[in-house]
Amino acid sequence: MDAYAINYWAVLVAGLAYTILGAIWYSAALFGNAWMQAIGKTKEQIQADFSPLNILWAFIGSLIAAYGIARILGWVGTFTIGWGVIVGLLAAICFVVVSMGVNDLFERRPLKLYLMNVCYHIVAFVIMGIIIGVWR
């Protein structure tokens, strides 16, 4: 495989990992209750607003993010666990953390909510980078 070739199975698994991590992260077992409190909604309100399409769109977004990490690793030309962590971490910090930070700042969102959300994405992007980095 050339350096620019992408392993689409790795992208698929990384996207699934991102989506599954979100389900775990925002469950009652971890940060679900604190997240609902921070957004000012109850469990009943969340359930009433739920649509399976939300999961589908989240998964599509996860695949796009995973593809981006795979593409950047291809441009770097090195698929390793170390480069996967570096690319995942840099992508999360440079794009997600900053973008969400700007939005949350102007929307006057609570710092607690911001930290819960960005930490999820940082962990998810690093996991995706690891999966794609080692599965060459």
Question: Quick summary of this structure?
Answer:
The protein is mainly α.
Description:
- With 136 residues, the chain is mainly α.
- It has one domain (8-134).
- Helices cover 80% and strands 0% of the residues.
- The protein has helices at residues 8-25, 32-39, 43-49, 52-76, 81-107, 111-134.
- Helix 1 runs antiparallel to helix 6.
Sketch the topology as an H/E string, one letter per element: HHHHHH
Shape: globular
Q: What average pLDDT do the residues reach?
A: 94
Number of strands: 0
- Stretches where pLDDT falls below 50 for ≥5 residues? none
Instruction: Report how far the terminal alpha carbons are from each other.
Output: 9 Å
Enumerate how many helices there are, as a single number.
6
* Percent of residues in β-strands: under 5%
Rg of Cα set: 16 Å
* Amount of helix: over 70%
- Number of individual domains: 1
Secondary structure layout:
Elements: H1 8-25, H2 32-39, H3 43-49, H4 52-76, H5 81-107, H6 111-134
Helix pairs in contact: 1-4, 1-6, 4-6, 5-6
Keywords:
136 residues, mainly alpha
